[in-house]
Amino acid sequence: MFISETTVDVRYAETDQMGVVYHANYLIWCELGRTKIVKDLGFDYAKLEDDGFLSPVMDFSIQYKAAMRYGQTATVRTWIEEHTNLRTTYGYEISHEDGTVAVTAKSVHILVKKENFRPVALKKIDPDWDAKYAEVAKF
Length: 139
Description:
By secondary structure, the chain is of the alpha+beta class. It is 26% helix and 35% strand.
């Protein structure tokens, strides 16, 4: 299983009055991880959009385990949990510098034509990308 990794320095603007990261910011960090894994695998999401396709989120689940605070560095690990004909599930783990897990999450995406939002299989658009996802997927 291929795991992509990136870091995020927790900024003051990402925290709430209690000094902990506001919960919605973890979703943004997951998006950073998803973008990074696509790039690390050798593909370009912006080109996919330029070619007339989008990858909307169909489902997102997140489990909060240990708060992060301003000044800390978060490590975002991302992998392909599952890849089928029409859906890709990304897995995420966001952790503290000492390895303590702050968040685990999953997002489910489909691929659609930008003009009409009709689903389309990645294999029809980019067979190499589809094959790579199938190769590195956990399931």
